[in-house]
Amino acid sequence: MRYYVVADPHGYYSALVEALEERGFFKDQEPHKLIVCGDLFDRGSEAIQMQKFILDLMKEDKVILVRGNHEDLALEMIHSWHRASYWQYHHRANGTVDTACQLAGSTMEELFFNPERIGKRFLNSPFIQRIIPQMVNYFETANYIFVHGWIPSEPVQVDDLHTEYIKIQDWRNASEEQWRKARWINGMLAAHTGATEEGKTIVCGHWHCSYGHARYEGRGGEFDNDPDFSPYYGDGIIALDTCTVCTHKINCIVIEEE
User: Fold this and answer.
1) For every one of its 258 residues, what pLDDT tens digit does the chain have, with 9 covering 90 and above?
2) Is the alpha carbon torsion for 19, 240, 243, 106 positive or negative?
3) DSSP-assigned beta bridge partners for residue 254
């Protein structure tokens, strides 16, 4: 099986299609699937197109969806909608409110005047009802583990400036709360502090690749000084997040597995 792997498309449907076209996804005649390592929405303006694209791939059994922290945010917002949490800063700042409006076919103005109507539309959207329920915490092959942030690991504060991670021994059977926390982990930091899986490469998103290039390779800065958002390859890790909201680009790698 050939896997085309992306992470954090964040509602940038055109950028996702461009990345897949460049790698040959649509012309591939061999068995192949797309793996999305979380965060389908909450930044870009093409949520409707992204939703339809994912639904079409689901019908063809050509996509594997790994859950990201922004999927958690969407459910968190829905579950607390009656408390008007959608006005809270983090839901606005993270783009979750904007995604709700897009998928509900609405606007921020209508949300202000008819919050219950928009909430019901978003709750009944295919994203909430069909896409998120199909998502998994991780997907594993013979040589790779695909996650959003990282595999469940415990942070250890070394000093005021340094944090290390120790993976949970039975991480595959971690609790939902442990997986929720893992979706916020910087995988590049976790990998460099030893929270890896022997014999496997962990493919992740969530944290911009420029972090790894800048900190561990001395190549550019994170967001200035010629940042490098290309995939980051290290011992036991491949990181993919391009910070799409800044670059309007998406990394796509191709992996062959038996």
Assistant:
1) 999 999 999 999 999 999 999 999 999 999 999 999 999 999 999 999 999 999 999 999 999 999 999 999 999 998 888 766 555 677 878 889 999 999 999 988 888 788 889 889 999 999 999 999 999 999 999 999 999 999 999 999 877 778 899 999 999 999 999 999 999 999 999 999 999 999 999 999 999 999 999 999 999 999 999 999 999 999 999 999 999 999 999 999 999 987
2) positive
3) 4
CB burial of 221-233 (b: ≥16 within 10 Å; e: otherwise) equals ebeeeebbbebbe
Q: How many CB atoms lie within 10 A of CB 135?
A: 17
Q: State the residue for tokens 């959003």.
A: 148
Contact 115, 129 (CB under 8 A): no
C-alpha angle 122-10-109 in degrees, rounded to nearest 5: 45
Ranges assigned E (strand) in the chain: 2-6, 32-37, 63-66, 139-140, 144-146, 153-157, 163-167, 201-204, 232-234, 237-239, 253-256
Residue 198: partners with Cβ closer than 8 Å, 6 or more residues away: none
- List CB contacts of 107: < 8 A, sequence separation 6 or more: 101
Tokens of 175: 């609790």
Q: Sign of the CA dihedral 199, 38, 2, 188?
A: negative
Distance from the first to the final alpha carbon of the chain? 6
Q: Which domains does the chain have, with CATH numbers?
A: 2-134 (3.60.21.10), 139-252 (no CATH)
* Angstrom distance (rounded) from CA 225 to CA 34: 33
Task: Point out which residues pair with 2 in neighbouring strands.
Answer: 32, 256
